[in-house]
Each structure stands twice: as C-alpha cells, then as structure tokens.
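[step 3/7] fold_predict: job queued, chain A
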Amino acid sequence: MLINWLEMGLRGTMTDEYSRLGYGAVVLASALVGMVLSALVQGALVRATLAHAEGGRASFAESASTGLAAALPLVGLAILMAIAVGLGFMLFIVPGVILYVMWAVASPVLVAERTGVFGAFGRSRELTKGARWKVFGVELVVVLAWWVISGVLGGLLFGLMGIKGMQTLGQHGLPISWMIGTAVVSTIVNAMWSTVQTALYVELRNWKGGYSDEALQDIFA
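[step 4/7] structure written:
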C-alpha cells in the first residue's frame, strides 16, 4: 500500500524526461522490494504450514528467520520459473502450463529441504510425477478463487465510484480505499497461495515416502 501511495505521488510530479526516468527507477526498485518481501513472507508461511502439518507450531521468530534465510534463493527461483513458464506460454500455452504444474512445489521444496534453486526444480518434478492432473486441478481452483475475489473487489469499486469515477481512476491518484482494499486482498491471496503450495508439497512428499518428524526437525535445526 505504501509503495502504491509513493508511486502515485511521484506520478503527479512528472513534468520532464528526467522526472519520468526517476519515476521509472522508483517503479523498478519497488518491484524488486516487493519480490523480496513476497519471498520472505512465502518462506515464513512455508515454515509455519509445515510445522502445523506435523502437529506442531512454529513461532513468529522461527517463521521469520526461515523466511529471511530463504528470501533471496526464492527470488532467484521465481525469476527463473517466470522466464521458463513465460516462454512456455508463448509456445501455444500448453508447455507453460506443463512446466508450472511440474514445478508447482519448487518453492516449499527449496525452503524445507534446502536443495538450492536448481535442486528444487528437480525435486518438484520428482514429487509431482504421477499426480500432475490433480496438482493442475488444485492450482486451477486457486486461480478461480483469485478471479472471484478480484471480481468482487472490482464490483464494489464500480458500485462506489460509478462509470465516471472509473474512467478517471488513477488520473488524480488512487483513492485510499482502493489501496487498502488491494492490500488486504493481496495479503489474503498470498497467504492462501503459499499455504496451498506447501500443503501440496506435504501431501506429495508423504505419498512418495516422506520424512519423519525427527527428519523435519533436523531440517529446521
């Protein structure tokens, strides 16, 4: 929300080429900060979800420290995955879907098993083998839920602002209600997405043989 507010404030001050370059630099920097923060939260949620799946409970400090340790590798994994899946979508969409499903649990693998970025891709491919249609179904449900939430938020905004308000949206800065609403929705969706991916990892890991409670404790020792 703060990043959106800062960007909108700077957008109103763009009067020449140099200010536009400055605005572009701020947007790029905010995107990088957003990626790091997202990875940090994802790592923390993986830790908390794994502890819950094993009948335990991770403290905030434990989850946060796990997120900090895994943040940069998760950013690298996300960038490589985005490039590969994006290229796959350019090749008639289907290859991109296959790659995404195959690497669906790469992030929790990286956090839980400390395999490194490339090891996480291989381990996720191994875990999803034989269950990729079911993984695809779960991912599709999550995407549909995101569309529904976004549609509800858009409908509420339209109802509050009307046609004229929507046409001028962003010209004079985004309303604070919009920034708060998108921040809340993003928090809910990111939490749901990370916990679903981790739950998938737990189910697939147990199906393939899994870890004992002691082994999981050793991983996070």
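[step 5/7] annotate
Residues 2-219 form one domain.
The mean pLDDT is 80.
exit 0
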